Amino acid sequence: MVLSGLFRRFSMYRALPRRRWRSLLQFSTLLSLCLTLVVGCQSGTPDANNTNSTPSPGSGRITIGTTLSARTLDPADAYEIFPGILLHNLADQLYAYEPGTTNLIPKLAADMPTVSDDGLTYVIPLREGVTFHDGSPFNAEVMAFSLERFMQNGGRPGFLLAEKIESVTASGESEITIQLQEPFAAFTALLTFWGVTPVPPEKYEIGEGRFIPDSFIGTGPYKLAAFTSDSIKLDVNENYWGEKPANDGIDIQIFTSSANLYNTFRTGGLDVAYQTLDPDQIASLEREASSGGWEVIEAGTTVINYMSLNQRIEPLNDVRVRQAIAAMIDRNLVNERVFQGQAEPLYSLIPTNFDVYEPVMQEAYGDGNFDLARELLTAAGFSESNPFNFEIWYPSASTTRSVVANTLKESFEAGLPGLVTVTVQTAEGATLWGNIDKGIYPAVLSNWYPDYYDEDTFVQPFMSCNQGSAETLCEEGGSQSSGSFYYSEAANELIAAQRAEQDPAARDDIFREIQTLLKDDVPYIPLWQNKDYVFAQDGVEGVAIQPTQQFLLWQISKGA
To answer: Tens digit of pLDDT for each residue in 103-143?
Structure first.
């Protein structure tokens, strides 16, 4: 496998737009199928009884191998996928998704929220009889404290609530009331985010930067037993209020290379291998599954990959040029040449997982449609004597994007010889994401990891603009942060309308209109959608990636 504006309350991040924090963080952990990732991990005090040896078969504990690691386990600061998976198994959120579906269900909430007619007030009843790993009680005061801490401590995901919530109060022993700044139809979905989880006030503080990165106390089905740079151990929470794990615990081994992960799993040293293997290794494990004695679990993801087009730089301010680029893209070629078919061509910013997805770019421009591209570029004034010179930028550490960029270069120049020349450029990741909102780069290959499972997170961060005009383009807002500087009054109005709309069918209609704008104006070109792969030894059951990309470790079991 290879992810809303700027922070308003936390000035420490103003140097880097918040969605670029997300892209940079995700880039450092999960950016590509081809790149082996090694991320520094805050180390806690090792458990004296913990060893890194694999438990004997039939022990009831599950061994998982990965190349990912966790920067922090503090829910107010964890914004990467892997600590999010850990927190989802160590903690509970107010709401969750019914396993195997995208149906929202109460978790620590006792019921779905009661929402006021104006969409601003959410009253949430809370589950009673829940305790933390240390035995302390969960109640409304604790939940309100935890939400305030999430918003106030200045953590990387803090804006998710801080930009939307006006106030949180404990309106009863087992009830909280949340007042929003403005209506937000996806708010209940947002309350499934892994960081929106209670922590005991006796152990955690509210205060700028007051985080606890290397330990965790929550209410979830597992307790953190050990957290080091090369291994993580989760023990069963025997006092858990909900469904008990189907195993006796989880032992996670962190590998420094995909080759080591691949070889250890292939020789039976792990029950499960998850993230990150390169395409050749995935293909090999798929071919040898029957003879090797393991299962391949393939799942789609909501990670989208796209090209942003900077309308502040000529000739990309000409919509015909942007449309011509869209016509030249051959997603099927990229999928086969770069990913060996282990990705999915994408024709909208909204992923295929959502019913409202429409392949608008395919219908309008096709794949490798060089006749249409020639027609558009000619109309824009280009010819063999006046060729279109196009720069594609990508983060220098990304092997995948290097191959994608050069594949596009070869395809474009072969399809329109003499009319199009492509220059591939790279910059160090932090530099690239730190400058993309300044309008330096004509076109950038990027990816996006959603913050919550809702269509809003795939359109608002890209196509909205808080300040700008048709003449100046976007000066502040989502599209400026994304590097396209797209400005559209129609897009702003539609995004505001879908956020306020409580009727799902009416909201879907608005998303269809937004996708039509994407097709017509081409501020971005969707490219591919990642697939997720997990490998499990025979006899290991319950291994599945959820539609929301969560990994429910408590469902995994194995025979003796």
So the answer is: 999 999 999 999 999 999 999 999 999 999 999 999 999 99
For the entire predicted model, the pTM comes to 0.86
Whether residue 378 has a cis bond before it, omega within 30° of 0: no
Going by their DSSP bridges, the two strands 343-345 and 294-309 should be labelled as: unpaired
The pLDDT value given to residue 560: 59
On the 0-12 / 13-18 / 19+ scale of CB atoms within 10 A, 247 is buried
Handedness of CA 324, 326, 329, 332 (dihedral sign): negative
Q: In terms of Cα–Cα distance, which of 3, 544, 533 is closest to 279?
A: 533
Q: In whole angstroms, how large is the CA radius of gyration of the chain?
A: 24
Helix/strand/coil percentages in the chain, nearest 5: 30, 25, 45
SS3 label, residue 32: coil
SS3 481: helix
Is cis: bond before 315, omega within 30 of 0?
Answer: yes
Predicted confidence (pLDDT) per residue in 262-282, tens digit: 999 999 999 999 988 998 999
Map tokens 């994401």 to a residue: 433
Domains in the chain, ordered, with CATH? 39-245 (3.40.190.10), 303-530 (3.10.105.10)
Element containing residue 475 per DSSP (H, E): strand 473-476
Residue type, 103: N
